[in-house]
């Protein structure tokens, strides 16, 4: 009997040692970049997408690749969201007044915000049109023009998990809010402030599932911490602030949107510079592209951006088109 008990204890001890030997990733661990070729560049794929369903794009402000593997474009001045195949073929469109940012949740519902500070949802299960699910309170302007109001909602990001929650950015109240699956306000997800893990005048907000962790990425209009990536449940910044972190030094370049690829690289549209900037997962500037091309291929006030496989999709707003870039890696000598 003693020998049997001793054997059980030894087995339990071995299992405990094996379990303790496994390394557990911290919530803010981004994936290792693997083998990075310093000669990687991004080449524009031609022709660009300039129309859908026979209608020319008019100031497209966002582009998003959904979980259903379709491309969605917020065609702002045409009052529509356009659905395309990955090859750019028209599928269908949905009418929304002046959409500014769009996203899709894991239930395949589409979410959008527009210039009227309205959140709209299109149910995948029910189909039909977008329905208004939330309208932000007006923010009065200070005297002497206090009879007009600001549009306050600029960005929306669905949770990357199947809970159907989402985040919206309030530009003039300097906060990012979390809403539940019933489109009800829950709490402040990112509080106001000019510091790492806080936000001032948030523009775009996006969500990412990186190694099973939920991250929020956002850009700010009035902050020394202009582009940030935080762990959603704790609010902890992924990239610690330092004077050498290039990603925190971008306030003069009109940043508009943020995307993260499968390697943890961060892409930001810089509207004023008419470029896309690529940062490493530790915030170092790796590459700028969008102006190193013939005049007809240069970006002009790009807004929305998304990353999918080896492609970068950009809403090239003032050129009234959607462009795609593909990675091009020169062979090592």
Defining traits:
4-stranded antiparallel sheet, 1 helix, mainly beta, 333 residues, Methylamine Dehydrogenase, Chain H
The computed structural class is mainly beta
Q: What is the rounded Rg? A: 22 Å
* Low-pLDDT regions: 8-38
Q: What's the CATH architecture name of the domain at 56-265? A: 7 Propeller
CATH topology of the domain at 56-265, which one? Methylamine Dehydrogenase, Chain H
**Sheet with the most strands?**
4 strands, antiparallel
Arithmetic mean of pLDDT: 83
Instruction: Please provide the count of β strands.
Output: 27
Spatial shape? globular
CATH class of the domain at 56-265: Mainly Beta
The CATH homologous superfamily of the domain at 56-265 is termed: YVTN repeat-like/Quinoprotein amine dehydrogenase
Percent helix: under 10%
By DSSP (H or I, 4+ residues per run), the number of helices equals: 1
The proportion of residues in beta strands is 35-45%
Notes on the protein architecture:
This protein is mostly beta strands and 333 residues long. It has a domain of 210 residues: Methylamine Dehydrogenase, Chain H (7 Propeller). The protein contains one helix and 27 strands. The strands form eight sheets. The chain has a four-stranded antiparallel β-sheet, with no helix packed on it. Strands 4-5-6-7 form a four-stranded antiparallel β-sheet, with no helix packed on it. The chain has a four-stranded antiparallel β-sheet with strand order 8-9-10-11, with no helix packed on it. A hairpin with an 8-residue loop joins strand 10 and strand 11. It is globular. It starts with a helix and ends with a strand.
């Amino acid at each position: 009997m003693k020998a049997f008990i001793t054997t059980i204890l030894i087995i339990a001890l071995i299992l405990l040692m094996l379990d303790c030997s496994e390394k557990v990733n911290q919530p803010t661990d981004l994936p290792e970049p693997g083998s990075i070729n310093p000669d990687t560049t991004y080449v524009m794929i031609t022709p660009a997408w300039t129309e859908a369903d026979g209608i020319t794009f008019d100031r497209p402000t966002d582009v998003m690749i959904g979980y259903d593997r379709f491309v969605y474009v917020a065609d702002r001045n045409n009052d529509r969201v356009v659905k395309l195949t990955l090859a750019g073929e028209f599928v269908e469109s949905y009418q929304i007044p002046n959409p500014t940012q769009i996203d899709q949740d894991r239930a395949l519902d589409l979410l959008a915000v527009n210039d009227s500070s309205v959140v709209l949802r299109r149910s995948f299960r029910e189909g039909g049109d977008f329905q208004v699910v939330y309208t932000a309170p007006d923010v009065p302007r200070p005297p002497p023009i206090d009879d007009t109001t600001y549009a306050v909602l600029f960005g929306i990001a669905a949770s990357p998990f199947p809970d159907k929650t989402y985040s919206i950015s309030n530009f003039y109240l300097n906060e990012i809010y979390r809403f539940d699956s019933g489109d009800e306000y829950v709490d402040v997800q990112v509080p106001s402030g000019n510091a790492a893990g806080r936000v001032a005048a948030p523009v775009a907000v996006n969500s990412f599932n990186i190694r099973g962790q939920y991250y929020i990425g956002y850009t700010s209009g009035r902050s020394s911490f202009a582009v940030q990536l935080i762990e959603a449940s704790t609010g902890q910044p992924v990239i610690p602030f330092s004077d050498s972190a290039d990603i925190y030094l971008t306030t003069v370049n009109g940043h508009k949107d943020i995307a993260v690829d499968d390697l943890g690289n961060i892409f930001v549209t810089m509207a004023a510079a008419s470029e896309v900037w690529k940062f490493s997962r530790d915030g170092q500037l790796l590459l700028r592209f969008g102006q190193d091309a013939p005049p007809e291929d240069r970006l002009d006030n790009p807004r929305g951006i998304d990353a999918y496989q080896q492609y970068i999709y950009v809403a090239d707003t003032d050129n009234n088109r959607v462009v795609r870039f593909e990675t091009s890696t020169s062979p090592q000598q």
